[in-house]
Specification:
By secondary structure, the chain is mainly alpha-helical. Helix content is about 75%, strand content about 0%. Strand 3 and strand 4 form a beta hairpin. Pfam families: PTR2.
């Protein structure tokens, strides 16, 4: 009972711990910096550094996939040694340097900056989310509502940043766009520091074991060794991004480790836990496919918008904010919908929601492909298809992404919750890796066509878009580029719809394996 009293003794604001407000704004500005820079990255590489599409997609995919590897390590180090406060500050400082160094035009600074953001994000991202959970006592009814408010902060940052950073980049130059992203990160860290100064977090987030933290080796304590190791690892991640063609080896290493360790856990748990764990793995595989298709947003879809869409009121980088804008609109109605359906006992179970998530994702990409019907003489399509496509796939995201997070904690054996959360985030690592491969299918060289131009997928493309390789080749290069985009979007849209329907059909079997978890 004493625990509950100490929770209410924390400074309160609008019925929530005051610390939530500080974490909300710290995360809002951190996501502002992350998404602002992300929106510019592929355009900066193709338009300013003059990388070809293949190279740009390779760098982008490696960067975005590694951003999801480091949180597994950063989370473990914070849990065991650093505590949330120190981990968040370390991550924030590394990311600030990463954003500002992007404004120096030298390859070593370009790749070094991406390395700094990858490592910094590993300390910042998982621990600020965990810190939100720390503010609430076990079983506090306000926890879900607190996370919904926090999720809104993430998406406000993600919606504003691409528009503002893109405007700065176009008006004053690329480097000013990156500097603005860096200023966002500085603001986020200052908000967090002022929260520490005003003591709004009570006794939360400190070093978990001071004795362990202070233990010295060669005259330096563990905390300082972590800082040094983080800085040293920047070079490794920068090299992986630069030589992204070798990232496949890392994928094999991570996969071997996951297969081995999950296999080991399966031998250690009860039959009921084993079935639930297999469902967690199944959900993660579905999420990997979802992420691989969904994450065209920052890469091929940005170039599609730049080259083949008649944009109104925003530029190509700004289109990255459409998805986050729809999340802000839909997040609260969706959470109310689940409550409403639960009350009437007709809330579909998670296995069905995952299928619906993939179904809507596929329909969104089919809408992008349908835009070919509105093409003008300059191979430009109507922007309305881009907006509606994003709206439909955002519905898919809300069916799948938040649901998956909450299910992982319920499905994993108690002793292995942190690891299974890491497995869930590995779907983003795999997703971005494969997203890069999908994006590369949209590149055009010497009038060649991709594998979706003929046969079964060629027929699908023609049926959905009305275009064939012959029609495209009789027109300008821009038409061939358009055909390349819409053939990939139509084909992967159909694949996603088929997998979604299959997941819905087998949902009764999955539901049975979940052993009472909805």
């Amino acid at each position: 009972m004493g625990n509950v009293i100490s929770e209410t003794e924390q400074p309160q604001l609008f019925g929530h711990p005051k610390g939530l407000l500080y974490l909300f704004f710290a995360e809002l500005w951190e996501r502002f910096s992350f998404y602002g820079m992300r929106a510019l990255l592929v355009l900066y590489m193709t338009k300013h550094l003059l990388y070809d599409d293949d190279m740009a997609f390779g760098v982008y995919a490696a960067y975005m996939s590694l951003v999801y590897v480091t949180p597994m390590i950063g989370g473990i180090l914070a849990d065991k040694i650093l505590g949330y406060r120190k981990a968040i500050i370390l991550g924030g400082i590394l990311m600030i340097f990463g954003h500002f160094f992007l404004s120096i035009e030298m390859p070593i600074f370009f790749y070094g900056s991406l390395g700094l953001i990858i490592v910094g994000n590993g300390f910042f991202k998982p621990n600020i989310s965990s810190f939100v959970g720390e503010l609430y006592a076990q079983g506090d009814a306000r926890r879900d509502s607190g996370f919904t408010i926090f999720y809104l902060g993430i998406n406000l940052g993600a919606a504003i940043a691409p528009l503002l950073c893109a405007w700065f980049a176009i008006t004053y130059g690329w480097h000013y766009g990156f500097v603005l992203a860096g200023i966002g990160m500085v603001t986020g860290l200052l908000v967090f520091k002022s929260g520490l100064k005003n003591n709004v977090f009570g006794n939360k987030g400190h070093v978990p074991n001071q004795q362990l933290y202070e233990r010295k080796k060669f005259g330096l304590n563990r905390g300082k060794w972590i800082v040094l190791a983080s800085i040293a690892s920047v070079g490794i991640f920068a090299t992986l991004v630069r030589f992204n063609e070798f990232e496949g080896y890392l994928v094999w290493i991570v996969s071997a480790f996951l297969v081995f360790y999950i296999g080991y856990i399966l031998t250690k748990v009860t039959s009921k836990e084993r079935k639930r764990l297999l469902v967690a793995v199944y959900f993660t595989i579905l999420y990997t496919l979802f992420a691989a298709i969904f994450e065209q947003a920052g890469s091929s879809l940005t170039l599609f918008a730049d080259r083949n869409v008649n944009l109104v009121g925003m530029d190509a980088a700004g289109t990255n904010s459409i998805n986050a804008g729809f999340i802000i609109l839909f997040a609260i109605p969706f959470s109310m919908l689940w409550t409403f359906l639960s009350r009437r006992k007709i809330n579909p179970n998670s296995a069905v929601k995952f299928g619906l998530g993939l179904l809507f994702l596929g329909l969104g990409f089919i809408v992008f492909a349908l835009s070919a019907h509105s093409v003008d003489d300059f191979a430009k399509t109507s922007m309305i298809y881009l907006v509606i496509g994003y709206m439909v796939l955002t519905v898919g995201e809300l069916f799948l992404s938040p649901i998956g997070l909450s299910k992982m904690t319920e499905l994993s054996p108690l002793k292995y919750v942190a690891f299974i959360m890491g497995v869930w985030f590995s779907a983003n690592f795999y997703g971005h890796f494969f997203a890069g491969k999908i994006a590369k299918l949209t590149t055009v060289s010497d009038g060649s066509t991709n594998i979706f131009s003929e046969g079964f997928f060629g027929n699908i493309t023609e049926y959905i878009t009305g275009l064939t390789p012959q029609i495209a080749s009789q027109n300008s290069d821009s038409f061939q580029q358009l055909f390349s985009y819409v053939s990939v979007y139509a084909s992967f849209g159909v694949i996603s719809v088929i997998v979604g329907i299959f997941a819905i059909l087998i949902s009764p079997i999955i539901k049975k394996m979940m052993g009472g978890i909805h």
